[in-house]
Amino acid sequence: MCIMYVLGIESSCDETACAIVDDKKNLLSSVVWTQPEHTEFGGVVPEIAARAHLEKIQSIVKTALDQSKLNFSDLSAVAASAGPGLIGGVIVGVMTAKAIASVHNIPFIAINHLEAHSLTPRLEKDVPFPYLLLLTSGGHCQILICYGIGKFKRLGATIDDSAGEAFDKVAKMIGLGYPGGPKVEKEAKEGNPKAYDLPRPMVGKPGCDLSFSGLKTAVRRIVETGDYNTQDLCASFQQAVLDSLCSRLKNAIKIFKKECPNGTNIVVAGGVAANQALRSAIENLASRYGLKFSAPPLKLCTDNGAMVAWAGMEHHLLGDYNSLDFQPRPRWPLDPNTNR
Ligand code: KG4
Ligand code: ZN
Known about the structure:
The chain is of the alpha/beta class. 42% of the residues lie in helices and 18% in strands. The protein has helices at residues 46-68, 87-104, 113-119, 121-124, 163-173, 180-189, 213-225, 230-259, 276-288, 305-317; strands spanning 5-10, 15-22, 27-34, 77-81, 108-111, 131-136, 141-148, 151-157, 265-269, 292-294. It has a 5-stranded mixed β-sheet, with helices on both faces. A 5-stranded mixed β-sheet has the order 8-7-6-9-10, with helices on both faces. Strand 7 (141-148) and strand 8 (151-157) form a beta hairpin. Helix 6 (180-189) crosses helix 8. The longest helix is centred in the last third of the chain and has 30 residues, at 230-259. The model has no long low-confidence stretch (mean pLDDT 97). Residues 113, 117, 137, 270-271, 303 line the site of zinc ion.
């Protein structure tokens, strides 16, 4: 039987990435280039990111093809992250994918970057729809029910910062550098999570919305005293984030169980899903409620091409393509009834 291959391109933030998957869930190649240009600024500079994507994209695509030992003519479809994200970078990825589609006469698929994160666990394991989803990255923090490809209902979202942003800002305050998540996690491993009494925003309130800006301010006040222990502060901050996320997820589980009595899985996806402490906290929570826990493998939590290629494959298998007129969308909510 003929094997299908989809190439996926990611360029919505500071990773220039390309990967190829087949319809048997084999990841044939995955190349991720994290732009080093932003480190000195402590965050991503959109104009620098766009130019850096443009400089790298062709060689990244070529490397991904070479590593897979395929040619453009072997591809069944080409997919790109088409939003939400930094528009300059998104345009670079979308234009590259459209050019490949046009020259090689294959379908183009515009992928919602958040959907790509959300579907990644299905590349590794059989995670059936519907599932409860915590999507937590640098730009987003939402709790949703995923009913199927392109079918999401948002139960809650952050009312201010995302969890990833909070990790990044705390890391910047204490001089750990960017991206902050992995650095804060490393310090937290050696610290006491009870050393500092930090707020747990939204905990105990009804609903599934989240908030992290009060927590970030509380950390800032401690940092400004100049008298703190980095490891203890990181551990206490990380614990407060985990407590907030788990408490809001508990409310979401109740809604999920009511709306989807046949649902069996909780998925956590997005860059912050790489956090081991978060993974085990949600795994524990899931088992307490009789649910299975799924998350992408660590290297596929932060932005990568494999998640886009896999989401592309899911759409390709449904024959769901986009025209070459498709306009990149800097804002593109998963749930069309919401604005983020
Ligand atoms: O999904 P992603 O690569 O980009 C967006 O779509 O935003 O997520 C990046 C975010 C950053 O804020 C980064 O600090 C956070 O994910 N992150 C982590 C960890 N690894 C990455 N946060 C906490 N713990 C980690 N181990
Ligand atoms: Zn992302």
